[in-house]
Amino acid sequence: MAQRIQNLRRAPTSDSMARALDLSGRRWALRIVWELRVGPLNFRALRSACGDISPSVLQSRLHELRNDQIIEKIPGLGYRLSTGGEKLFQVLAQLDKWSGTLSDGSRRSK
Amino acid sequence: MAQRIQNLRRAPTSDSMARALDLSGRRWALRIVWELRVGPLNFRALRSACGDISPSVLQSRLHELRNDQIIEKIPGLGYRLSTGGEKLFQVLAQLDKWSGTLSDGSRRSK
DNA sequence: AATCATTGCTACCGATAGCGTAACAATCAG
DNA sequence: CTGATTGTTACGCTATCGGTAGCAATGATT
User: Fold this and answer.
1) Angle at B69 between CA B57 and CA B55, to 5 degrees
2) pLDDT tens for residues B34-61?
3) Interface residue A7 vs chain B (CB under 8 A)
4) Looking at residue B3, what is its pLDDT?
5) Residue B90 phi/psi, 5° resolution?
């Protein structure tokens, strides 16, 4: 593993990766993708799945995610992952596994 | 009542995953981890690697990431990924691959 | 020692993003 | 019709972010 890091030593962060990281850095963006993993959810169901996130923020994220073609809106059904979104979900599945190792004594710092 | 269709079966998002997603949702958090993949960087180098992020935000993220034991501070060397941080890096490597497929026509929406 | 450069970091403040609540029109059930 | 449920927007408030400047501490150079 130290070797793997070694090999990447000179690769600068790609534009696409910077975009992906920027996307991830918006509140609720990944959570929304994660909640859609089980199938389509409509606006209100999605909202409650995310712990009653503010509807204005949800609306923003939905637009952005649609813009990036990660989710799509199906009239009468709600929102669901696109093909690309399902690929992103695979990554999040890894994150889910990793999250189990997150130290527990970590509450918001200041 | 239409809700009977929605909330049938769903593995609820675990607390640890919610924490991980929350962490990812803070600006620059994952980018910082990503930039540290090449090895330790000191405060100013890290800042410039992230595209001259505001030092106050960087400082906050560094505290939080240290709190979650994702990075550690090495006196005289700067900041580097901890063991857990390197595991997170593996996940980000997946994200990096995925990012290549991110649709290009997506500029910030509002 | 005096000077200069570099370091990590903080202070300040304007700008933006996010939150919470309340509503709205449209649709559909009864 | 009435009443419930939908997606969505409006509003005002707070928290977070961003940009610039500046500090004290350390180390090198003269």
Assistant:
1) 15
2) 999 999 999 999 999 999 999 999 999 9
3) no
4) 38
5) -60, -40
Question: How far is C-alpha B3 from the geometric centre of its chain's CA atoms?
Answer: 34
Establish if B73 touches chain A: CB-CB under 8 angstroms: no
Half-sphere exposure at residue A47, Cβ-oriented, CA atoms within 13 angstroms:
13
* Successive 10-residue mean pLDDT values, chain A, 110 residues: 43 93 97 96 96 97 96 94 97 97 58
Q: B80 near B87, Cβ under 8 Å?
A: no
Q: How far is B72 from chain A (nearest CA, A)?
A: 14
Residues 77-106 of B with CB under 8 A from A: 84, 86-91, 94-96, 98-103, 106
Q: What is the DSSP string of A47-70?
A: HHHTTS--HHHHHHHHHHHHHTTS
Q: What is the pLDDT of residues B3-39, one digit of tens each?
A: 333 344 567 899 999 999 999 999 999 999 999 999 9
Distance CA(A40)–CA(A17), nearest Å, equals 27
Return residues 8-27 of B near A (CB < 8 Å): 9-11, 13-14, 16-27
Domains of chain B: 26-91 (1.10.10.10)
